[in-house]
Amino acid sequence: xxxxxxxxxxxxxxxxxxxxxxxxxxxxxxxxxxxxxxxxxxxxxxxxxxxxxxxxxxxxxxxxxxxxxxxxxxxxxxxxxxxxxxxxxxxxxxxxxxxxxxxxxxxxxxxxxxxxxxxxxxxxxxxxxxxxxxxxxxxxxxxxxxxxxxxxxxxxxxxxxxxxxxxxxxxxxxxxxxxxxxxxxxxxxxxxxxxxxxxxxxxxxxxxxxxxxxxxxxxxxxxxxxxxxxxxxxxxxxxxxxxxxxxxxxxxxxxxxxxxxxxx
Length: 264
Known about the structure:
Structural class: mainly beta
Number of helices: 1
Radius of gyration: 22 Å
Mean pLDDT: 85
Strand content: over 45%
Largest sheet: 9 strands, mixed
Shape: globular
Low-confidence stretches: 1-29, 227-236
Order of helices and strands: EEEEEEEEEEEEEEEEEHEEE
Number of strands: 20
Distance between the termini: 36 Å
Helix content: under 10%
């Protein structure tokens, strides 16, 4: 996905005044490269990773170069521990002492290419995924089966969820997110609709349920192109990053739980 830079875009404006036509060329070559952040802290045992890359021009290959030589730190507000991440190959920076815990707030600090960036994320309390079931829709001469993630939403507190689906060994590229704006305190069965990866008898389905904070939900909601309260499409837009200074991407502290089931 090319997130920002465009080479030269010709905007042809037909101005019907006195039967004249004017062609205006707008050059966007001067757009500066942007930092792209992919950072996660979870309730699983670390280390955790922050990946740093950089956007490229529109005409360039769709390969984002790694950002090397950066200073990356994660601070746990609850303990006061500052973790200076170790640089690994390919723009990956790895934690050394950070322990992911629910209800802890984590501050990300990055200094890269002479610029400073910050982000904050609070790990929500974990909500338990209690089962996976299946729902089959029949019509137009075919049947389509989708998995349902089933769980009890806690009442009286904001909750947001992200789901990752793997069919056999194929991770789905689709983004599934949901908040409890319309379902606070209810038992939820969230159907994960698949556009093309239809589930067949004998397929093994893994669902990873993440409990995410509100900024992460808003980011992935826009990225998914859906109204996350009912799964309906919305107008596309650029995701709002929770990383400062014009960076793209996200920093998310979230819980993780995985469950598998075979469709028989």
